[in-house]
Amino acid sequence: MKNRSFGSIVYTAFKWVIIWGLALFEIFPIIQLILNSFRPDTEIKKFPIGLPRTWTLENYPDTWNIGNYGRAFLNSIWVCFWTIVITLVLIGLASYALAKIDFKGRGFFVAYFLMGMAIPSFSHLIPTYYLFNRMGIANTHLCLIIIYTAGQIPFNLLLLRTFLLGIPRELEEAAKVDGCNELGTFLRVTLPLAKSIFLTVALLIFMKSWNEFAVANTYVTTDSLRTVSTRFVKFTTEYNNNFGRIFTSGVISIAPVVIMYLLMQNRFIDGLTSGGLKG
Question: Which CATH architecture has domain 67-278?
Answer without folding.
Answer: Orthogonal Bundle (1.10)
